[in-house]
Amino acid sequence: MGRTGKYTVVRACNDHGAITLREYPRNGTLYVVEYDDPDVEAELSSLDAGSVVELNLRRAGRRGNAWCAESAQPVDPA
């Protein structure tokens, strides 16, 4: 199962490589805990809380609300 959309960074990347996101503009919370490649991880690790990013995600294993980022593109605030 995958999903694509815009997400707001709630908590920047932590020491374990996880980032907390909120669906934009809705309020569903999800956690990115895996990355398809180091470039995607570097892009997300560089974002601060409040940043908006467009992501392609897929479930990370069978965990309920954990996701793997396949691609990331920061969104300029308008």
UniProtKB/TrEMBL annotation:
Pfam families: DUF7999. It comes from the Archaea. InterPro entries: DUF7999 (IPR058312). Residues 4-77 form the DUF7999 domain. This is DUF7999 domain-containing protein.
